[in-house]
Amino acid sequence: MESFASSLSKLTGESTLLYQEIARKVEKTKGIKTINFGIGQPDLPTPQRIRDEAKVALEKGYTAYTPALGLDELRSKIAEFLSQKYGDKIIKDEIAVTPGAKTALFLAFLAYVNPGDEVILFDPSFYSYAEVVKLLGGKPVYVPLHFDQGKGFYYVTDELSSKISPKTKMIVYNNPHNPTGMTFDADLSKTVAEISQERKIVLISDEIYDYFVFDKNFWSVLQTPSWRDNVIYINGFSKTFSMTGWRLGYIVARKEVIGKMGILASNIYTCPTSFAQYGALASFDSFAQVKEMIDLFRRRRDVMYNELSGVKGIKVYKSSGAFYMFPDFSEVLGAGGMDSKSLAVKLIEEAGVVTIPGEVFPERVGKNFLRLSFALGEEKIKEGVSRMKLFVEKVL
Ligand code: PLP
Fold first, then answer.
1. Three-class secondary structure assignment of 180-233
2. Which family would the database say this protein is a member of (predicted)?
């Protein structure tokens, strides 16, 4: 009988998908159509130019391995684009193209985390950070985000500083933030950059939602003049260009770090998919579509916020980033004697609405919250929230 590696038992799998699975079963057995607020991707097609360029690449037979760190042209384009955006001279050798931002994160953790190392995460945060840290024998250490209905979510500097120990290897910062839908105030982003640099801690800055910013100024960690000292910047094509299935992300870090990523990449996956990379070359000419998408998402956000504001028993902050809202359901949970997981299951079974329970992100703070994505049409948003409202009224 084979025995699996003990590290594997530390992984729980993608729990956000579990709720989609329950929804599929409920649709089948009860014959109802659910409204899906569980979605973590834009619902629009990839811009035409990008699809066309990938097709051309296929036709031309550009289907062989590329360099492990990605096509030189694509790395140069990313470097040029970020240089213009952030006023720094970023070069090709400071870029690694990866199969999705998740792989970029995986390489970054793999490159630094030794068993016993502590990695500071914000609570709540994207579930995969903690999973990978644990897989590598590291220990996630959580800094809570606090919630204020008017201001949104924020961390307290002293709480962050107090979690730093001699074992701290990394801090992971995600802005705009999944699952809260927060674009953090610039001073919070600057502080995390300063603290990590002063204390000589590697800072992973996951900025994959950087185009999904509403009513706020976004400050990138790449605006720190000395980012090369300790920053591993993560971004990708998945969300901005509606390319989740293409699997293309990238890392920005100083040349020496990118060299290590190249060694890992060539041993793990050889290279990102060739024709997907050729398609991505056209993404830099597709910002008109991105702008249209962001305008659409802003309107959807407003609709969702207005609808949720009319539901008694929940507290909601008007999301300023990504495409999520993270309302506080503590009153409903208290009245119904439920936790966020059982509430999410009941909402699917009894109201036909899919949400993601805050507990999967992955610690304590989220336990009173549900994550709702507004990556779906306005009519569906209205219908879904009205179903939730009926359910909540029965519970209260
Ligand atoms: N980082 C965050 C915060 C995310 O929410 C996601 C996807 O949901 C990713 C990274 C992964 O992106 P990709 O699809 O490019 O792997």
1. CCECCCHHHHHHHHHHHHHCCCEEEEECCCCCCECCCCCCCHHHCCCHHHCEEE
2. Belongs to the class-I pyridoxal-phosphate-dependent aminotransferase family.
Cα 366 from Cα 22, distance rounded (Å): 21
* Nearest atom in ligand 1 to 103's CA: 16
Domain housing 256: 62-285
Kindly state if the Cβ of 174 falls inside 6 Å of ligand 1.
yes
Same domain, 134 and 85: yes
Last residue of a domain, one of 285, 317, 339: 285
Contacts of 24 (CB under 8 A, 6+ apart): none
* CB-ligand 1 contact for 101 (6 Å cutoff): yes
Q: How far is the CA of 208 from the centre of ligand 1 (A)?
A: 7
Residue that the structure tokens 């802005």 belong to: 175
Mutate to test the pocket of ligand 1, among 126, 173, 269, 283 (most ligand atoms within 8 A of CB): 126
In whole angstroms, what is the distance from residue 188 CA to residue 154 CA? 8
Q: Are 50 and 282 in contact (CB under 8 A)?
A: yes
Could you tell me the distance, in angstroms and rounded to a whole number, from the CA of residue 85 to the centre of ligand 1?
22
**38 close to ligand 1 (CB < 6 Angstrom):** no
pLDDT digits (tens, 9 = 90+) for 282-313: 999 999 999 999 999 999 999 999 999 999 99
Query: Is the alpha carbon torsion for 76, 80, 85, 87 positive or negative?
Result: positive
Does residue 325 sit in the same domain as residue 236? no
Q: 176 with 183: CB under 8 angstroms?
A: yes
Q: Number of folded domains in the chain?
A: 2
Bridging pattern class, strands 249-252 and 231-236: antiparallel
The residue whose CA has the least distance to atom 12 of ligand 1 is 101
Using one digit for the tens of pLDDT, what is the confidence trace for 211-237? Answer: 999 999 999 999 999 999 999 999 999
177: CA distance to ligand 1 center in Å? 11
312: in domain: yes
Say if residue 215 is in the same domain as residue 104. yes
User: Does ligand 1 come within 6 angstroms of the Cβ of 71?
Assistant: no
Task: Round to whole Å and give the CA distance between 245 and 387.
Answer: 31
